[in-house]
Amino acid sequence: MTGSFFEGSIRKLFFEHRSFPAGRVKLKEENVKLIKKVEELMGQGSLDDVCKLLHEHKSHYDWVGVYLVHPDDKLVLGPYHGEKTIHTEIPFGEGVCGLGAVEQKTIIVDDVCKADEYLSCSPKVKSEIVVPITKNGEFIGEIDIDSHRLNAFDKEDKDFLEKVSEIIGKVI
Ligand code: SME
Question: CA-CA distance, 74 to 60, in Å (whole number)?
Fold first, then answer.
């Protein structure tokens, strides 16, 4: 395959990030409760309220948003809670979100300063997690969360957010 998009994406896959083997741990009680709340909110069709819930209940989730896939191979910002961002559209293959779109798996960046291709929204952000959302097996968007703490996200966050993403994907 030739073309700048593909070549560019491969180059960008090399920045420092973490991924985990498949399989989930049993979620903590606090997260089980939040999952129930997410199911209720998505039952009412409120993705915005899901972002709000996560933003309010997790002290290390300083920015919580959802990007949705646009047919032109880019992500477009949907509902979010946290500071305003200039990154309302992100081409596939750019930034942490664009990497998530190419790999279609959860990406954790422990220290955004070490990720050359990271697209900064605020100098306060230190780490980031991006979780893909699929609907009937098709990649339709991502949950994106920024933290003001270094190394803020662990496997519990990954498993919790992948469950949240599963619920969103079923309802959206
Ligand atoms: N940091 C992201 C851009 C989106 S903001 O975090 C809201 C990235 O590198 O793709």
Answer: 27
Question: Which of the listed residues 16, 112, 117, 146 should we mutate to test ligand 1's pocket, taking the one with most ligand atoms within 8 A of CB?
Answer: 146
Ligand 1, atom nearest to 94 Cα: 10
With residue 60 as reference, give the H or E element that holds it: none
Write the pLDDT tens digit of every residue in 8-24. 443 444 455 666 666 66
Q: Which fold has domain 3-171?
A: Beta-Lactamase (3.30.450)
Residue with CA at minimum distance from ligand 1 atom 2: 119
User: Which residues have a Cβ under 8 Å from the Cβ of 136 and sit 6 or more positions away?
Assistant: none
**Single pTM value for the model:** 0.89
Rounded to 10 degrees, what is the CA torsion of 158, 135, 10, 131?
A: -20
